[in-house]
Design brief:
The protein is of the alpha+beta class. It is built from 29 helices and 16 strands. Strand 15 (about 805) and strand 16 (about 810) form a beta hairpin.
Amino acid sequence: MNGFTPPIQKWPPAPDALLTPKTMAKKNAGSSMILVGAMVVVGIIASVPKEVWGTLFVAGAVVFVVRVVVKMMGSGSRAKPVSRVVSTPPPGGAPASQDSSCPAPALKVESAAMQKDEFASFVLSVEPQTAEHRIPIPEGPIGNQWKWVPAGETVSVAGFEISGGLLYVGSGLRDRYGQIDPALINPKLSVASTPVVTSLRLMGYWSSYSDVTPDARRAHLQWLADGRRDPNADIGYVFLFFYGLERRALVDVTTDPAAKADIPAIKVEVQRLLDIYVGSNSFRQYATHFLAYLDAEKLAVKAYLDAPPAIPERCYELPLGLKIGLGQLAADQQPVPANWALAWALADPNISRRTAVTRCGAEFAQLFQREYAAEHGEGFLLRNNKTKLQCSYQPASRGFHGQSFQQSLGGLPDVSAVKVPVQKLQALVDSCTTALEPYSRFVGRNPDKAHALEALLQLPVDLWPATVKAELDDLKTRVGDGMVVMSFGELSGRLKSAGPLSRDKVIGLARALQELQLGMEPDVLAGARTPKAEDKIALFAASANEGSQREGAVYQAAAVTLDLACMVALADGDASAQELLTLTRYIDSWSHLSVAHRKRLKAHLRLGIEQPATLAGVKKKFEHLADDARRSIARFLAHLTQADGVVSPSEVKFLERTYRALGLETTLVYTDLHANDAPVPSTAEVASASPKPQGFSLDPARIAQLQKETAEVAALLANVFVEEGEQERTEVATALPDEATEQMQTGLLGLDANHSAFVRLLVTRSTWLRDELMDAASDMELMLDGALEHINEAALDTCDAPLTEGDDPIEINQEVLEALPV
């Protein structure tokens, strides 16, 4: 182009030069239209009344005079000459690019002074570069004036000071299709003069800075100048900036050595943007894949020796870093460590995860790794499958539309294509989720009580917080091989209880203590009454093999025998040390019971002395006993009162009450007492003053006799309980048809047939999701809220408590359930 001067042309060209046969035909057609129009106008004029013509003539004359005057006043004025404007590139040229060329000569635009209403003449020529003010010029090979602003530098555009760099500024930067690159910020393009709300969507999909409106350009510059951190900004402005990072890391890096040095800063910036705009699914996907692509070539040869990569909040495919590590495990035939298996289970979109996984993330991770190790040891092996892992990235910028960047990963297998490991992980996720669901539901309803005892009782003990486990360890140390008696409120308070515990929570606490080999009396696991806060409990070192045999008839008989013995020992107001020692020896002599059960019975004895049972509570245990059985028990109790060598009047009174409760004559009390030649107070002494203290001495022969009788009574009671159990089962089986018929007639809780049927459905689960229960109620043609209200009112009338609790999920009150004949 050097030395080339374009010919001078005048505009517009001569009219004849524009005429062609085609234009002539258009001209004739236009003339015909004009003729028709003229005829229509003439017709309209002819229809106008004469009075109107006079008015129009006067108005026209006035307009004509005014125009002549105005023209005369401006006849001497001339147009100002147009300024001479030259556009040249800045000194120094532009950086190297895949589509850059040598700096082009400047394009000069000149015009002569023009008279008003005259045509202008333009001259195009090439001049050397100068430092004059320039106007935008057509982009192309001659307008290559862009630059990359490195990280940390500041650039000024349209009055905005943009710090931080990492963007393209200038003109002429083109994409692979020859179009202006979408990320290029051209300072010469117009920008709105007033502030714009950056949260408004002013751009379409795949926008380009050069194509958007001036308002959108200003909003983008505002976002950049504000530090690229406004979380409410439209995601389109983030993508415009992101397009430039993609180009720098994927294109410039192949030709510009300086671009490689920018990669670390680009990765940091993309991660920062990802943290801010993680809510955008589209940006999260592109940014995550972009970072994975940049990191792929720098991953360690044995990445699985380190911790697995962080898992994004939402994954639609396994992260590349995780795939590479798992592929290396398969290639090396190494077992998958528990932490990598956990990352796989949390990231794989083919593995379903219920609410408990996310709500109780820390507890799930701990439980999953524990169960994984228990089931798979060091981990399961992965097959070196045929599907190979590929690393590719499809950029977001429209400048790369249809282009994909790929890296070789050395033929690693893609383990995500294998089903068996996913099935194993899914089964483990399901089992852990099921174990965590009660805790998850409680925390969902009570988020501020996640570490309260009520919540922790829904978890295995080894998942409890360290502070609570420290309390349990201290308690276990305090118990040692012996026994500790305390109030139940003290125990629950030490374990950070938020209030009174329901029966199911107390049972959970007993199970938790049992895991630590701590036994608790009363034995709620065997059906004992739930202790209140002020009630006494006994904690003792329990054996791991204690099992559930204490629910059997033999153990129950021994426990009832001790209850009666404790009441007899306390009949005179206090149990002497000798009486306690005697009862302890009795327990040791019961060889038909295991060592673990005898240890629990000693705790039962201690609690019976601290907090004795009532005669009315024990009476029902003997209602169905035969006469000889009741007589044997009475003799045993009479002999027990003589264990300390003294029989007080109060003990005699208690024996009389016990004999009456057993359906025996009270005169038999004195007969049984005199049978052992013990000093027995007279009837008058029993009815009068309190006894005087007397000395005593233990008679080994009498103690041996009592031990023998105790064993006989315990065996007798065991047989009675076994027979009672069989009789009760027989009676239930025999009476079942009649009871079922009666129940069908009266309904549960006095409800009608429809609501009774709904109650039976309710109690088939311990917890219902509201949506599921609404479907069930609809199937039974019931309104859920009305049905639950009706059922709970009936339960309150019958059991003093509602059957269901909560709104979503809806839980069944286990205490009320125990009272229902279902």
